[in-house]
Write a structure and sequence with these properties.
Number of helices: 22
Shape: globular
Low-confidence stretches: none
Helix content: 55-70%
Strand order of the largest sheet: 2-1-3-5-4
Distance between the termini: 69 Å
Structural class: mainly alpha
Number of domains: 2
Radius of gyration: 25 Å
Length: 472
């Protein structure tokens, strides 16, 4: 049986491609409701701005194109995300192959990504901007590796500038990758010859032109763009050196420990961490850079997914560290990876079909079809829906796309009192609005529905202002 695995070693990218195609099919099949980040993207569909709250605009711009090309919004979301995810695995394979000229090492690097749950599970489950950032990080690493091995032309500097700009427009933490590469150039002659060349002004100019509109927006909306991030990271709180260091290293352990433990378990006799000094220096500089950053900003909170894109190249580094690879170990490794891939698909489906097995029903199980049936049964023919949770607004819009949808606030509450055919729908994430609405004389009706495929209850509060000619 083990020898049969060999053909999968040399054709692993095809397995990865099939894997993501299956995930698209699964997502569309259980496409009855949105996840949180998906909901945000659906509500922003067709709204073109230079910036959206705390996130740069690139993901939303591209996702809007997919919404226009595909009539099914769930398909549009799933296709774009899984194309990006496959691109990450593909570029990881190609980057490793350029450096190793070895398909086995390339397969090991690519398959290793499945052992980083922040990428293989969380990005599939419900992340958007982080997925795009992962893609541009690996694309930039791939492009730089290529540039180190060839004579550089002016067009290469144009492409380099565009990748840098698009990476920043994907997510702001991409700037840390650029800083890491700049610092790395002082310790790598080939990289130094790329960056400290007169033609680098072409890359700078291209990046400046592409980033300028958003930079103007960012400066004009600085508080909107940064306040949420500052609050999440607890920046500026009373400083505690040990807490700041601890949150970073706990995030690193959460991110990389499962992968590194298994890698050393399988290949401990074949590892030489000095075989590729370029990526070794990259990892060291990045880690020191993050330590300095958390100390300067006095960060007391850190999520592993925030640094996920920056540490993706570690799988390339570890695969390149292997010498005289034992093919038997690779076979067992690949069997484990395929088992994990199947496990992810099964878990994804079970979240929908057997939600009570888990602590909470997934957002796929939100009973929005039941809510819509209730609205139709009671002839609630709204033209404007007010919501606080994006999940509520997006899922209403999924079933009735021609109505208008607005975030509830004081201005919208006044619009409700003075208007007609307006629906207010609040869920558990929006309970704080209930006392305010009642104070304004707006009575809310409590409704209870079972989550789909679940015994657990989903509670909503609803108010409806009828039109003048609506006698129902």
């Amino acid at each position: 049986m083990l020898k049969k695995v060999d053909k999968y070693i040399f054709n692993f990218l095809y397995i990865v491609l099939i894997y993501f195609i299956i995930f698209i099919i699964i997502r569309v099949t259980i496409g009855h409701a949105f996840e949180r980040d998906e909901a945000e993207q659906f509500l922003l569909n067709g709204i073109y701005k230079l910036g959206y709250s705390t996130q740069p605009p690139l993901y939303t711009w591209i996702q809007s194109i997919f919404f226009k090309l595909l009539p099914n919004p769930i398909m549009a979301l799933a296709l774009f995300k899984n194309m990006l995810l496959f691109g990450i695995y593909y570029l990881t394979y190609k980057t490793t192959f350029i450096l190793s000229k070895d398909k086995i090492a390339s397969t090991i690097a690519t398959s290793s990504l499945f052992l980083i749950p922040a990428l293989s599970w969380e990005c599939q489950r419900d992340l958007t901007h982080t997925v795009l950032t992962n893609f541009f990080v690996i694309l930039l690493v791939y492009f730089i590796v290529k540039l180190r091995e060839k004579d550089i032309k002016k067009l290469d500097y144009v492409i380099l500038g565009a990748i840098i700009a698009f990476g920043i427009l994907a997510k702001y933490n991409f700037v840390l990758l650029i800083l890491t590469i700049l610092l790395l150039s002082f310790f790598d002659t080939k990289l130094k010859n790329i960056i400290f060349k007169r033609d680098i002004i072409i890359s700078i100019s291209v990046s400046f032109i592409l980033l300028l509109p958003h930079c103007i927006w960012f400066l004009n909306h600085f508080n909107i763009a940064t306040s949420s991030t500052i609050n999440k990271m607890k920046i500026g709180n009373s400083f505690n050196f040990f807490i700041s260091i601890k949150v970073l290293f706990l995030a690193l352990i959460e991110l990389l420990a499962p992968y590194l433990l298994l890698f050393f378990l399988f290949f401990k006799k074949e590892i030489n961490l000095n075989r590729n000094k370029f990526f070794k220096k990259y990892i060291i500089i990045l880690t020191l850079e993050l330590i300095v950053l958390v100390l300067i900003l006095k960060m007391h909170y850190f999520k592993s997914r925030w640094i996920l894109p920056l540490y993706l190249p570690i799988v390339i580094y570890m695969a390149l560290s292997l010498k005289r690879i034992n093919i038997k170990n690779v076979r067992y490794w690949l069997l484990l990876i395929i088992f994990i891939m199947i496990g992810y698909m099964v878990a994804y489906i079970l979240r929908y079909t057997n939600p009570d097995f888990f602590r909470h029903p997934s957002r796929f199980n939100y009973p929005y079809s039941q809510i819509i049936n209730y609205l139709n049964t009671h002839n609630i023919n709204y033209q404007l829906a007010l919501y606080d949770s994006n999940l509520v607004g997006a899922n209403l819009k999924l079933y009735k796309p021609n109505a208008k949808y607005k975030k509830i606030n004081s201005k919208m509450i006044n619009a409700y009192k003075n208007g007609n055919n307006i629906l207010i729908l609040l869920d558990k994430d929006s309970f704080s609005y209930i006392p305010l609405l009642e104070k304004k004389g707006i009575k809310l009706k409590e409704l209870k529905f079972n989550y789909k495929n679940s015994k657990k209850i989903y509670k909503i509060y609803i108010a409806y202002k009828k039109g003048k000619n609506d006698h129902n």
